[in-house]
Protein 1
Amino acid sequence: MWTRWISLILILFASGSIFADRQKKSVETVRELSEEKRLEFDYSFMEGVKCKILGNFQEALGWFDNCLKLLPSSPVVKYEVAALLLAAKDYNGALELTREAVAGNPENVWYRILLANVLQEKSMIEEACEVYADIIAKYPDREEFYLLEAGLYASVEKWQKAIDVCDKYEEHYGITEPVSIEKIKLYTKLGDVKGASNELMKLIRKFPDRSDYLNLLAELYFNYNQDKKGLQILDRLLKAEPDNGFVHFYLADYYLSKKRTDEADAHIRSALTSDKVEGGYKVQYILRLILNADTVSMPESRLDDYMALLMEKYSDDLSIRALHSDFLKKDGKLEESKKELEYILSKEKNNYLIWEELLLLCNELQDTAGMYAFSLEAMTYFPDQPLPYALAGLKFMMDDDFERALPFFEKGVVLADENPALKAQFYSYLGDCHYRSGRVEKAFGMFDEVLKINPNDALVLNNYAYYLALRKENLSRAEQMISQAVKLESDNAVYLDTYAWVLYVRGNYSQAKFYMKLAIEKAKEESGVYLDHYGDILYRNGEKAEAAEMWKKAAELGIEDKEMSEILEKKLKTGVLSE
């Protein structure tokens, strides 16, 4: 509040001072100067003011300096020069000239305002306050001066003096909400609960229909460990307004803070069914309970009950339906959660966050048809959002239809330009699509783009290294990349398998055996591919019988890749490594 008034007074100062002081100036010059000198003084002064208005401060100072040569005692010129020095942050020079201006014309309020501003800049706060006190004595109807003085006292933690100024304000203007609220803050700074509560009582008496003041009074008592008084206030409120949901919420918070969840529960239920609280506020309250479930010790069953209450009362409120979707998802009811989101979008298409939540749910449910259809529809409403393009493209990647996936990823990488992480993900998708389509060099170019953005993208490091190993190209780089991926995720069986295979291709069979064995140990389930790789590595290490045993187990588990499966069958028949 204080800053607003300071800004206002500076505006008044800038806009009103010239006119007021020109009148004084003319009187001074008439009395003390000859006609010729007076004309020169008037011309110099007006040129100085004009230059100041145009922002030519140095030129303005030159004109004002000429005025002082003609009339060294002129308060108005000293005032103008002091204002320029203040703007230039020459506070000492400004203070000296402003004091002289005030001494030369004590009745001019603008000189005193400037003096107060200079004193404030020099951190001479109490003296600045005394200046405002003098101004108030002369102009008791100017409320901004009271507020400025009180604000300055508060800025140096002179809380009681600030209160005294506010009291003077109230003597003149009566009880007003802004000043009363400031006084309450000042009393709390002093730790004076009685003083703060008295101020609140004044507001309560003046505005008996404002229950929020009673809430503030209760909060004040709670903050100072006077719970009994606070509860009495809130009980008084509920007797007058039994369905005041805000008071019920406040009491619920109080009992939750005391771990008295049964009492809190009763008030929460009353608040959720109150017609005096809008649905949006209730949603925010329940969300807060969810986010702080551990600290408030609220059982999930009760949260579900609250959600049921809201759904019963606000079944047409889309914000409630969105919250219900979150609850269903939390309980693992993904299909039901998805249906809620579909309902919301049937009523309101322009909420992107709902589209995003629906698309991610489709992905989680592996509903690729729904994911694709909703992605296309989302694009019509939000053509600049990259996620729908990513998920539409993923649908075709899952179907091994890489050529149809490419346009979506190419559009997405452009839209994700300001999101480096997402841009890298699109490059990764593009790399996989190009590789699977036989455009190897283009694919590697995409992977290079990913690693420019994020050199520690473990998945791309792994895939890139594996593709190089399969092609027996740039194997030193492949080993460097997969080594980095394993450092980032040392328990990842996929990365350990790739590391073993790169070492194998490079002819480092003993190390390859170590990492392949580790990959099998870390794998969450047995893998035919891993056992096939392990068999090849054992064969190269001279352990041919053990290799044949691994190939046999790999065949029993099965390998989806047709080419690998055919090679495995050949190895089993001949007992000889075939690559």
Note: The chain is about 80% helix and 0% strand.
Protein 2
Amino acid sequence: MSNKAKLRIIPLGGVGEIGKNMTAFEYDQDIIVVDCGSMFPKEDLLGIDLVIPDASYLVANKERIRGYVFTHGHEDHIGAVPYIVPTAPAPLYGSRLTMALIENKLREHRIPDLELNTVLPRQVIHLGCFSIRFIRVNHSIAGAYALAITTPVGTVVHSGDFKIDYTPVDGEVTDLSALAAIGDNGVLALLCESTNVERPGYTMSERKVGETFRRQMINASGRVIIAMFSSNVHRLQQVVDCAVEFGRKVCFVGRSMVTVSAVAMDLGELVIPDEYLVEIDDLDRYRDDQLVILTTGSQGEPMSGLTRMAFAEHRKLAIKPSDKVIISASPIPGNEVGVSRVIDQLYRCGAEVIYDAMAEVHVSGHACQEELKLMHALVRPRYFIPVHGEYRMLWQHGVLAESMGTSTRNIILPEMGQVIELGPNSVQIAGEVPTGNVLVDGLGIGDVGNAVLKDRKHLAEEGLLIITFAFDMTRGTLVAGPDVSSRGFVYVRDNEDIIAGVRDLTLRIIRSYGRIESGDWNNLRNRVKDEVHHFIYERIKRNPMIIPIIENVVNM
């Protein structure tokens, strides 16, 4: 069987990691891309704003891309759209909320002329040789879909992010009957999310959080401030419903909270009576016991609304002792320190703080083991490929699939960039494509690499020492300096002996040359750098970045 008769599945992100989900499906001359997500940088990526997938394979094959298909509107599934799609353009497809969030994102980046298409549950679209059916699932955002992708070699089901909530806030349950019907017709492969595979049992219903909000609001004597992910529109709706019940006005604070709530209200996904919605500038018109404030900052982000309130850095709001603050989220791995810091500061302000260790203020949007088993039982795939998780999660999901009857030889634990080739009765790894992380820093995309990050880490940990001196180019003699300045290394006034030692050492090195010829500049620069480094390390066991700057002066 030729390669053209094989379906190629290529994970470009979202396997072996949490975030930047993107997978390419390829058959003959047609490619579709499922999701196009980003990931927040880890602590070692100093100064980086965002991490996105390496899409060089898609750019190289952009004429073959028939469309981008989105499971839902979280940043780890749509965050890379403004950076990747314009370089390899094709129509985009997703739910109403997903498309509205993408449209808003493209508008912010001033990217026009991309074709956005809204699809409804159970709708089928045709992109090249692919037919894609959108299947409603529950998640922590409205408009989430699983996908049934029909290809010339069989049907592949992509679960997207999902859980099975029998009592969802909007009453729209996961479409189990559609999944069962697809399973009855035969499924070649299942790509299923693995985020909560380590958790036994079932994920709690979102309504549990609403019950907690109600209990907490009954006893609140002052303002109720709730920090959560702005994209969880169903949770926002539950807060609004509680606020209306107790006669409290609702105010949205934080850029993403304001943006997403406005989009959701425009679409009718979030319903707030006009008389209960107030702007931040109007809060002073109401008593504290008449207010609910919804804000960003559930992950302790330094520039978020809650963090700035806690540290009295917000232009309009500060935490009061009478406030009740609810953090309706659990810390994402890596964010624990930031969240703890904010909670501690909230207590220092005298506020009452409710968080996930104390009450049911958060439930996951991802399936636990029993829900994953139900997905496998309904779909009954021949081949299984776990996605959306770190490697241990993919491994554990493979074990779960085996317990559900999938043969070990039919389970593929994918690596990013691997090409998984599927035929009607075969699966194999057939090479790999370029992949990895592209770093976004301000307006720069991919221009920050390992060398720059290494320098940033060096500067952050050890500081900078600049040694400046000037030479007469004609005579090859020193005419000014050396001057020594420090940034983040030592405080000059308290370490004048070290600064003087660096200056004297540099002067001795210069004098050892006598006359400086034009070919000596690099040698002089490197010698100053090395010997000053040795001098500082011997004195105080530090290793600052040392930059000698030689100025050439012509005396007329």
Note: The first strand starts at residue 7 and ends at 13.
Protein 3
Amino acid sequence: MDALTIDAPGKDLSVAIDQINNGDPLEVRLRWNDEHAEQFSELLKVADENRVSVTVEFDTLRPSHLSDVIFRYRYPRPAVTAKRNVTDERNLAIGSTLPMPADPLDYENARGMSLVSEAMQEFIQELRDALWVMRAHKQAPRMPWDPLDGQRSDIRYAKDNSPTLQDWGFPNLSAVFECYNERNRGHLRRLFGHANDGVRPNSAREPGWDWNIKLLVTGDSGTGKSLVARLAHRVLYPDDHHKRYFAHLNCSTLDAQNAEFEIFGAAPGTYTGVDHRVGALARAAYGTAFLDEFGDLPPGTGPILLTFLDDLLVRPRGMMQFFSYSYVVAATNRDLSARIRAGEFRNDLVQRFSRRIEVPPLRRRGRAEILALVDMACQNPIENPIETFRGKEGRAITEVAPPALSMLASHDYADGNVRELEAITHQAIQRAKRRNSSLIEPIDLDIPKHPNYRPDADQNVIRVGALPDLDQQVEVESLQDIAHLAQLTRQPLLQAPDNTYAVIHGSTGYYYRPPRPRPLPFRHE
């Protein structure tokens, strides 16, 4: 097989495109240069159409590379050939390592993509493979309503104050729910029927839509799981993600009484004192449903989500059910395997997610990656904007001193990760400003001496062969209580093979033993 390395537009680029179109075997290495992005993108598009892999080499991965190259095309294999030149031995000039947009909205959109680096290549490859499997099936059809309620609601009211939709072209979703009554039921059935493309509303098998491809994102708190979910939304809807609804549903806030009301919604008059309700999963019927804090799903709500994950049918109370052309992404910082073994979570819920990826914590990314993220946090346009002062344009904080960089790189972020790093950096920016200094120094850093663990974190669990048998033993009622005790005493949470948990504090052992299933009564035949 011929090998061809391309670093600029010219004869080699034309030859590569022609050979790929002709089906000739060819190995292509593309050394990416932003100046030639348009010409290089043409090659990648041709390679995608012909299913030919192209190795794309980046000296440094930037946020735009993720959306414009790595996730836009199916067959490029990204490779980082040069590591970031970041050390804690000299001043870090803000913006020299990972240039970020100055506009607050653009910065926020690029913030999740900026976590891409040479240390994250394996994660990015897994994420890209998962998203392309999700994108491989039929795309959601044209939306029959506006899920964002971005236009005027055309509703007219009869003498008895019953609402009727006036504009049947592209109504607001809120108006569709508000107008669901006996008088409008026939029209609304046709509207929901259009949403189902003529398939019976109780069908659990929509033609061309693979309901089985769902993504579960795991990882410690603060690693950016929500950012990954929003990035997935932009990748899954590359052309109109801003029109599609991204439903962020916090599963930990649900309970058995309000779960159906919150996630599906209800027609007018179904609940006393409530006119109507558009549920989160109803809005996400043609977008992305993000199930955040999935591992904290309270008891009693699992069957409701399990049924939805099985057939993707939205079931508003008092209304006809309809199929949801939605991508489903869930995220949790919990160790779901441990919770399943302890009887705290349903295994069948986890099995509904065919694709699972873990976001690596900071401790596995290396010092250079941590310092690059410090550079990113220092460019936050709200905390450290680019301003004009005395005829000069620049930021108030321009550098970070080596001793401060060393402290930031060596801190154990435990269960705070990128979120904690950003908070420490932003606080240091404000302190440096108050000192009228353009340089962040150790005096500006407020770094906790002990690692911060969230009470619901599972990462401080240590699995042991047997628990110590102490004279002083205290029984704890729940797994949450003993995890909270481990945080308060700053002791590890020990887990035995039988899923008994213990915290040893001084000469006292605190134990949580999960309830044992009762044996079935013996029957005489």
Note: The radius of gyration is 27 Å.
